[in-house]
Specification:
This protein has six helices and nine strands, in the order αααββββαβββββαα. It is an alpha+beta fold.
Length: 272
């Protein structure tokens, strides 16, 4: 992870070297969250592009210089198996995962689902271990196919295509219940437990502080802060990305141009 205080102090040192201006903690936190999200979202189209090169054997494949592998490793901190809980009190009973919808200073946002991957539905059948081919259910854990709501209705209403424990289906929905964002899965047939392999969004970085009595000087508060979720190798990209936006705030086109050129050069080197 990239230390939020290291990034903030570096940004301030670069901006103040020639008395170019100042970025407040609140401005920094907003810029840091935007830049982190931009870098995170760039992993997916970049990964697709690098995967094509990897399949065509047009890139190096040594222990530390496989750029597709290196790009893939940047995603590892965001891959999680999340357990859903059953909520029978909703209008349509479903499996729910609730996450914090917003972050406030000094708090760390819970895992916000960015993409859902493999869904596993577990069935605790009384027929576990039964090898009778006539038995309709043996229990166990099975991959669940995610379909649209319209397809779900069609499949479950047909006797020929009705889902079974070995071939369950599900559709997803979301709703906001302040301050929570709930992701729901309606699954047929009804399992006993559900887990989903997901990519979660990075929690917002926060540079928290206290103010010195009398002077009002900002003093870094590590216990209330939240560092960047990105891997350490992204520190340069983060700093340059924040400087690019900071140039807009302090109205300095020189900072914008220099930071943009540096970001473009780093990205070109990573993809070449």
């Amino acid at each position: 992870m990239v230390n939020v205080n290291t990034v903030y102090t570096t940004v301030l040192q670069i901006l103040n070297k020639e008395q170019r201006g100042y970025v407040t903690p609140q401005e920094f936190n907003n810029l840091a969250q935007q830049v982190q999200l931009e870098i995170f979202e760039s992993y997916f189209p970049d990964g697709t592009q690098l995967n094509r090169q990897n399949q065509n054997n047009t890139q190096n494949n040594t222990e530390f210089f496989n750029i597709f592998k290196n790009q893939n490793e940047k995603i590892f901190p965001f891959i999680k198996d999340l357990a859903f809980s059953y909520d029978a009190l909703t209008t349509q009973p479903m499996w729910i995962y609730s996450v914090a919808g917003s972050a406030t200073s000094g708090s760390i946002q819970e895992s916000q689902i960015y993409w859902m991957g493999e869904i596993l539905s577990k069935y605790n059948s009384s027929l576990v271990g039964n090898t009778d081919p006539k038995a309709s259910s043996f229990g166990g854990e099975y991959i669940t196919q995610l379909v649209t709501r319209a397809d779900y209705n069609k499949i479950t209403r047909s006797k020929l295509t009705a889902p079974t424990e070995k071939f369950p289906i599900a559709f997803a929905s979301t709703k906001t219940v302040n301050p929570l964002l709930e992701v729901g899965l309606t699954i047929s047939p009804q399992p006993s437990s559900v887990s989903v392999n997901c990519i979660v969004a990075p929690a917002p970085p926060i540079w928290a502080f206290t103010q010195a009595p009398g002077t009002g000087q900002y003093i870094y508060s590590p216990a209330r802060s939240n560092s960047f979720s990105l891997v350490y190798q992204e520190q340069t990209n983060i700093i340059m990305g924040i400087l690019k936006y900071a140039g807009v705030i302090i109205n300095d086109p020189t900072i914008i141009d220099l930071a943009s050129q540096e970001v473009a050069q780093v990205q070109a080197n990573e993809k070449s």
